[in-house]
């Protein structure tokens, strides 16, 4: 608990007064304009940024951008899931940030970008994790390649902030279809690197396709 207490002090007195983040478009990742040293940016989502401090490498601070909703719902999900190997764990939270257990690995998006193989075991692990969440009355939502990771060869879910939403979300099922129909037969064995600009084209095209189908 001393680590958490010290980390909270670092967050409140060093990170929050000096970081500059903003959400320009709720459908695009937030923008981080400045991070105080020695904090490290691990990644950004549409609502929040994930950061770590080198003195506390086992934790990630998830900081919501000003005006972005969802932190209360995310805390609620962590309280429901409690401890599970395929999900992170929330140790502390305020009205704008959470301190979570840090997973050290690669997101599936990063794997595709870097040419790292994604074993089928990872897909099965994510399926089982989502099945567990549903058994608790949750509704897995917004599960996609940037929100799941490979950690020591196993699949984990790193963003559960939207698991209280009740509307249908097909992102993970659509990803699995692409994995089995395109990735496994054409990319898995000799996995090329795929430039990020091309992945962004795919992401935008997919979003447009889903809008047209509505």
TrEMBL record:
The UniProt keywords, alphabetically, are: Kinase, Serine/threonine-protein kinase, Transferase
Write down the superkingdom of origin: Bacteria
Keyword Transferase annotated: yes
> What InterPro entries does this protein's entry cite?
Kinase-like_dom_sf (IPR011009), Meiotic_Drive_Suppr_Kinase (IPR052396)
Q: Which GO terms describe its molecular function?
A: protein serine/threonine kinase activity
Q: Which PANTHER family match?
A: SERINE/THREONINE-PROTEIN KINASE YRZF-RELATED, SERINE_THREONINE-PROTEIN KINASE YRZF-RELATED
Q: What is this protein called?
A: Serine/threonine protein kinase
According to its UniProt entry, this protein's organism is Clostridium polyendosporum
